[in-house]
User: Fold this.
Amino acid sequence: MDVVSDAIAAVRTGSPSVNRLRVNGTWCVRLEPYEGAGFHVALTGGCWLLPDTGPALTLRPGDAVLLPHGAGHVLADAPADAARVARAAPFETVGDRPPRSGAPAVELLCGKYRLDRSHTHPLLAELPDVVHLPREGAGADPHPELRSAIALLAREAGSPGPGSCAAVPSLLDLLLVYMIRAWTTDPATGSGSARWPAALADPVVTEALRLLHGDPAAPWTAGLLATRSGVSRATLGRRFTALVGRPPMAYLTWWRMTRAATLLRTADAPLESVARQVGYGTPYALSHAFRREFGVTPGRYRAGHLPRAHSTSLAKQS
Assistant:
């Protein structure tokens, strides 16, 4: 696995959802804050997005916007004052509207991802409330893979066919990866002052992260990681800490605990197996480190996240 894939996998829960919104004339809808991430893509026509905090922005045809922290916001046909925002209809109550003569049609692709924010990877935590990815006018599109994913998702959401139930969730996952990737690689998205895009652009730090995420259970030491990354221990420590925010071994411990939490939430493997997968020789060693990070034992953590039928027996594995 790589950092972006692991960061998403560590917080993703349930299944993402998507729908198409077709409106015209005068309209204004509100999406309340939610535990997850959301996105909108303007397929036809344009509109305004008004976040609860922060400046309004225009969505033109082909533009995509990611709201990675589930910020509440309003979508409208035009800039809206406070009184109009207060009267906005709930998004869930607005469906297709019959066309009105002379009123331009607007078609949006809107989706949500369910996320568990109890231990968000710092890469995702660093994302701004709104990531605007405008479609380029003339010239080469800097994110052609994003446009391809949007086109495929729009087709499946608009005209479901055999296999759509499998295709749509996969395309939604792909779209999220491409939107986050665009933020990390394109200075135009406002990521220039952020730490993690710089970390992923540094070849030494990127290699160290690749090694740690590729095999977190390996018996890593600072010296071994530096050797495998092609630099001295001091150089790796300095560059890694400056860009990631913590030394390599501290990051590894944090990631092992985050990975353990994901395994405990999503599988019923014995605690001994979970310990081995994240680099601990015994369940006791894992439990000690896990409790330091989360404040509870692995067994009790798992009992709080798995269906109740498993809770009593699994909580004893602490």
In short: The chain has a mean pLDDT of 88. The longest strand covers residues 105-114. The chain has 14 helices and ten strands. The beta strands are 17-24, 28-31, 36-44, 47-51, 57-59, 64-67, 73-76, 89-90, 105-114, 131-133.
